[in-house]
Structures are given as C-alpha cells and as structure tokens.
Sequence to fold (114 residues):
Amino acid sequence: MSDVNAPGPVQDSPCQACGACCSYSSNWPRFSTEDDAALALIPADMVNERQSGMRCDGERCAALRGKVGVATSCAVYAVRPEVCRTCMPGDAECGMARRRHGLPPLPPRPSAQC
Fold:
C-alpha cells in the first residue's frame, strides 16, 4: 500500500504557499478517471459520503493542511485524485481559485505540478 504521507511536491512549488485550489469549491476535489485500486488508497475518512470525491469542510478539502496563501500541504498527496494531479500553477483554474482568496495570479508554469 502506498504511503499517503510520502514526500509531497518539490519544495519550490508555489502550491506550498497557496492551497487556493484545495479550498475553492467542495465540487472541485472530485473523482473522475481513477480506477477502484487508486481510490482504495485514499483513506476512507477523506472521501465524501457519495464516494464521488474528497470530503470537504465547507469549500475546503479535508486533506488540505495549513493556511491558504501562507503555507499548505496535502495530507494525501501521494494518492490525491487525478483532478488534483492535473492542476498546474498559473493555469485558468489556479487563477480562479487564487482570485477567490484575494491572491495575485501566478505566471503559468507548464512543467510544474501542484
């Protein structure tokens, strides 16, 4: 079984000082392309009642740790949903989430991953 506490993103990732996408909408951290084996790696207490995505506290994903816009991390980074894996710093979704939290936009970083 994968270690959900395995090392997260690289230390210079702007995501570690953000977390806006993880606290943008309770509909965001949804499951879409994951197979049953991948979903089984996510701790059950982090999955919503409908089994359709991550559990959220309000709009904030339950796996998000830290303070948005200051310092954040993901408690299940190694097994996070595909929608989280495809989010890129500076992309359109990142920009929307950052605006909602009053954070300035990031320049696109196509080779970087949250």
